[in-house]
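Quick question, first post here. What does this chain look like in 3D?
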Amino acid sequence: MTIIRARVLGFCMGVRRAAELAEAQAKKAAQEGCALYTLGHLIHNPQVLADLEKQGVITLNQNALDQIKENGKNSGVIIRAHGISPQTEEKLRGMECKITDATCPNVKKNQLKTQELSRAGYSLFLAGESSHAEIEGITGYANSAPFCKAVMNTEQAREAAAALLKANKDAKTALIGQTTISQDEYNAIGNEIKKYFPNLEIVNTICAATAERQQALRELLNDVEAVIIAGGKESANTRRLLVIAQESGKPCALAEKVDEIPREFFGYKTVGISAGASTPDTLIDDIEKTLKTPSPPAPSRSR
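> Answer (accepted):
Ran it through. C-alpha cells below.
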C-alpha cells in the first residue's frame, strides 16, 4: 500500500502555541503546588487533552468558576485556544488567579474586530456554529451591537437578514466568520445576506491554516483511492475536511484513533491522510503505520 500525506496537515500555529503554553504552565504548577485549569477544552483533540490531564491540567465547564474561586491565588487558568468572552475573563481576573491566555492570535484578532464594529453601531452576523467555543467567545465581544446573530448556513442567514431588515432596513451590517469555516460556506452566507443588505461589510476572518489544509486535501484527493481524515470529532475544521472528502465521492472516514480506521481501507492500493489543525503528529504517524501493517487492528468497542 502507498500512503500519501496531504502537503499541509496537523497542528496549526495557534494550536501548537496553546499546547506548548499549557505544558509549560503544567510544569510550573507542579513545582509550585498550584491547581491548573482550563475553561472548556484547550483544543479539540482527545489525545492532547488526555496527555494534559496526566500532567495535572483540569478541564472545567465554563460555568464552573466556583472551583477556581475556592483556590484563588493558588490556582492558574489557561484560556483555551478558541478564546472566551470578555465577561468571563473579567470574572477570572476578579478571582486573582494566574491567567495564561492561549487564545489563538487569529481568534483574538476576530474578537477585537467584533468589538470595534459593535462599538461603531454595526449589526453583526457571525458565520459559524452558535454552540462552538469560538463563536460563543466572539459573541461576548458584540455586546454593544444593536443586533448579533450566529448563522451556520444560507437558510439561517436568510432568516436572520430578513428579521433585521424588518426591524431596521437602514442598519449598518457586517459579517465575521469562525476562523475554521470554509471559504465556500462563508461566500454563500455573505451572498445571501447581501440580498437584504447590499452594503454588507464582509470581514476576512478565515484562518490561512484552515484554507491551506482544505486546498491540500482537494489536491490529495486527485491522487488516492480513499482518504482518512485524522482528528477529533469535536473539531470543526476536521469535520469540514471530512465534508470536502465526502463531496469528492471517494471512500473517506474520520478517525480519532487507529482502531477507527474502516477495515476496507486496508484493501486499497493508495490511501491519503489529511488531518485537522488540532491533530498531533503522533496520531498521523500511528495511522500511517497501522495502514501499512499486514492485518488491520480489531475495531474499537466504543464505536
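The chain has three domains: 2-11+209-291, 13-104, 106-202.
The longest strand covers residues 270-275.
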